[in-house]
Here is the input.
Amino acid sequence: MNKLKVLFACLLLFALASCSTGTETKDKKLEAKIDNLLSQMTLQEKIGQMNQISSFGNIEDMSGLIKKGEIGSILNETDLQKINALQRVAMEESRLGIPIIFARDVIHGFKTIFPIPLGQAASFNPEIVEAGARVAAIESSSVGIRWTFAPMIDIARDPRWGRIAEGCGEDTYLTSVMGAAMVKGFQGDSLNNPTSIAACPKHFVGYGAAEGGRDYNSTSIPERLMRNVYLPPFEAAARAGAATYMTSFNDNDGVPSTGNAFILKQVLRNEWGFDGLVVTDWASATEMIAHGFAADSKEAALKSVNAGVDMEMVSYSFVRHLPELIKEGKVKQSTIDNAVRNILRIKFRLGLFDNPYLEEDKPSVLYAESHLATAKRAAVESAILLKNDNETLPLTSKVKTVAIVGPLADAPYEQMGTWVFDGEKAHTQTPLMAIREMCGDNVQVIYEPGLAYSRDKSASGIAKAAAAAARADVVLAFVGEESILSGEAHSLADLNLVGAQSELIAAVAKTGKPVVTVVMAGRPLTIGKEAELSAAVLYNFHPGTMGGPAIADLLFGKEVPSGKTPVTFPKMTGQIPLYYAHNNSGRPATRTETLIDNIPVEAAQTSLGNTSFYLDAGFDPLYPFGYGLSYSTFTYGNIKLSSATLKKNDVLTVSFDLQNSGKYPATEVAQLYVQDKIGSVTRPVKELKRFTRVTLEPGEKKTVTFELPVSELAFYNIDMMKVVESGDFGLWVAGDSQSGEELVFKVID
Ligand code: BGC
Here is the structure.
């Protein structure tokens, strides 16, 4: 009997161990090394490890601090010689020889700049996203950076928020897949590999829901929404092995993330088993004073450390106040020890103790040909064709003269997008350069920008641009945003094209020549008016170093667009927040509502028969989530479910025929959406559950299958338990979130 009990206990332990996330499985030898080192450290040295500084001071000051063991990490140093020199001080002149981790915001490339993350998400291709992160890791690690503050996986449903550019858009599933791909790309096969850099999913958590899209603002995300929408990408990143996390600036429901034990301890450590390190955002510990959550920097340190923060970025409250807080018994010695263990664990995993220095005379890998080729592929796959009347695109050999207008046609700095510290505009290839090269002597290119930069309001150049348009067979108008108009602290209240860009489009369209509007921006813009005046619209979020050649290939048909919107495009800013996975409300819109111009004068007051919509904007967006055209067309048919009734541990197989019904070899992003019809709490009208890129020759038909375990229909229910609830589900397979015929299946107990 006893033997049976022991056997049962062993089986249970085995089952529990194999259920844990990758980060939880601790290596005993490593833990012993960490404990051994920790036992030799003074309190000052331990607190020193918890201190991250920025490399703005001079090397002498820094060396002094490093010698005393007062610095755990340095951000923003990118000079290989300096990094080696500082590391030598840490390894050879500090008492215990603990290496420094050098960190940098390597967000969408180091030198070779990839499309901004929102653009990469439009590819719906986790492989190209992983490849991009790998390139970024290879380039940045080659100068000594071993830690990036990326991926940013904040769900953003408000494009006024400038930082929407840095993430993967509005959808929880898409962001989870892309975030995990970036973690894998940055960290490679093993952190120990010298080309691997530790990832840092950020900002933990809820930052993308900033009130009104104003950066740094408060968020109001109740626990269920937090768990169903905002947390899953971070959990997926933990499962992908993310080494570190960064807290966010926002206070959610009154609690700043840097002081939020519920998310840092309960969710991240206890529920997900994370054993890496947590760093604050830039001074977000002491910003809790401005929040009104800490009276002074001492209380900021107290609240951060006790909430579960391990390392403080640049605000020094830990080094200043932790010794005293420990003496007063307000912070436990064991809390400090655990934080230092988390930091040392990552330093050991990165192999920094064994391999602290870099060879200085190795051949450069920066801007390697293969890196540029991957960046170009990413830019090709990130472009979204929003409109293409009369097959204006691709441009054919009938086109003998093109007029290129607009401030973004030749703006090498701007097309790299936000969060670029290291990429150089001298290496950027613009659309103008690439089109000129492609056209050679065959097609005449007239370049007349009309405006000097996106915010340029002076209309003086517009007439010249219109004159150029009049002489051409087709007009290519490159408009959008300069890179500084999106990103951190760059929110907008109005998403129309800035400056006189709208006037420019109107003027060239007036010539009667077909206008192809090519947008490069950090967010979806409200371009309905300009799209109407254009024959075709190709939308690129800032496409990076190789944006020019990618766009030229797309315009001239060497490549076929395949990107899909990773975020809903509103018609007007007032519709925001606008996202496809909304709840239905008690009065869902019918799209037959009376809009503002059809309401009679002195209409009688009534709400009867009315629904949830805007009188002036109606209900629909300009372009829905998941939308994007191709030069070809696709037909979906023969959609079959493996069973109409499933148990909770079953796997649903959805198969369908996808045919290329057009004349170009092309790639379609097929998407699977599901709706849980009745729940213990209301559920979104649709949720993306699977997607895949399918490449087909003209006329070719393939049978595609999606496997969806029923367990992935689970959500946090009325009792805050993650469960699959039995009942009816709707299912759609389509090329965007608004298309497709509904099928129904049932989940039973
Ligand atoms: C940003 C972070 C970034 C950090 C370090 C902060 O202002 O919010 O995303 O990683 O600075 O540069």
User: Anything to note?
Assistant: The chain has 21 helices and 25 strands. The longest strand covers residues 666-676. Residues 38 and 337 are 7 Å apart (CA to CA). The longest helix spans residues 2-19.
